[in-house]
């Protein structure tokens, strides 16, 4: 039976653990989690998902077959330095670190490792992540099946070349935050125009869900779907004109490009720190 060791128990780790446990992919008692100092987070994960928590690295890594690296990229060098003596060639390392290449992980660990670099998003918690996976040559076919199954339980998956992961990070890794940002604006405006917060929230969520399902199920392009909402001289047209004036579509394009560039920069910072 597999044993999973999660290093860096924060938001992303929790989303994955939630997905894995809810979907019964693993026995929760075979999932061991640690972080740097956030003991409260560990207790909360233990209470919510019945996983095991520890600050003892021997206990964490003993018989572990899969290791998830989920600390912030800036903490990766220190964290990997700290755990490297416990890592083995037989373990499957899953790194969700934005920007950090598989090569950098191996360099930091000072050894050759079977690595899957994944870019999920926090919607994994509700089984709706979009996860891109890149693998190095040491990953076996069985390990690949295992990891694909793991991420398939928390959403859709695609295998990509490692170079594409920065773009995935800018688009769908960070993507939920762009939608929450829109939802925040919709909530604020709804209250301003006289709706109660509770009704507004339900209607915003339903509007987002409905639009997402239309995008998913309809054969029409987003532009066409937008046109179908927009009556000439109507309310949508009036609203969209304001968005055009603010160049909101350009802002979103620049936002995704900048997030992608930041993913690249995070990786470069790690490489620079190693002088490679
Ligand atoms: N939050 C998100 O939406 C997504 C995050 N990611 C990636 O996931 C990783 C984690 O992001 P979040 O969960 O948002 O961060 P977070 O700050 O919520 O969690 C990071 C955790 O790492 C722990 N940590 C730091 N140094 C450590 C060390 N030396 N040893 C053990 N644990 C250590 C911290 O205590 C913290 O609990 C990042 O690399 C990020 O790029 C990837 C996809 C989406
Ligand atoms: O903001 C970040 O760096 C991480 C990566 C993708 C989503 N959150």
From TrEMBL:
Protein name: Pyrroline-5-carboxylate reductase
Thylakoid is among the record's keywords: no
Keyword list, A-Z: Amino-acid biosynthesis, Cytoplasm, NADP, Oxidoreductase, Proline biosynthesis
Cellular component annotations (GO), alphabetically ordered: cytoplasm
Annotated catalysed reactions: L-proline + NADP(+) = (S)-1-pyrroline-5-carboxylate + NADPH + 2 H(+); L-proline + NAD(+) = (S)-1-pyrroline-5-carboxylate + NADH + 2 H(+)
Summary of the function given for this chain in its UniProt record: Catalyzes the reduction of 1-pyrroline-5-carboxylate (PCA) to L-proline.
Organism: Cytobacillus solani
Family from the record: Belongs to the pyrroline-5-carboxylate reductase family.
Entry-linked InterPro entries: 6-PGluconate_DH-like_C_sf, NAD(P)-bd_dom_sf, P5C_Rdtase_cat_N, P5CR-like_CS, P5CR_dimer, Pyrroline-COOH_reductase
Keyword Cytoplasm attributed: yes
Enzyme class, broadest EC rank: oxidoreductase
Annotated GO biological process: L-proline biosynthetic process
EC number: 1.5.1.2
Chief place of localization: cytoplasm
Ligand binding (NADP(+)): 70-73
Pathway participation: Amino-acid biosynthesis; L-proline biosynthesis; L-proline from L-glutamate 5-semialdehyde: step 1/1
Domain Pyrroline-5-carboxylate reductase catalytic N-terminal residues, every copy: 3-99
Protein's cellular compartments: Cytoplasm
Pfam families (UniProt xref): F420_oxidored, P5CR_dimer
Domain Pyrroline-5-carboxylate reductase dimerisation as annotated: residue spans: 162-266
Gene Ontology terms, MF aspect: pyrroline-5-carboxylate reductase activity
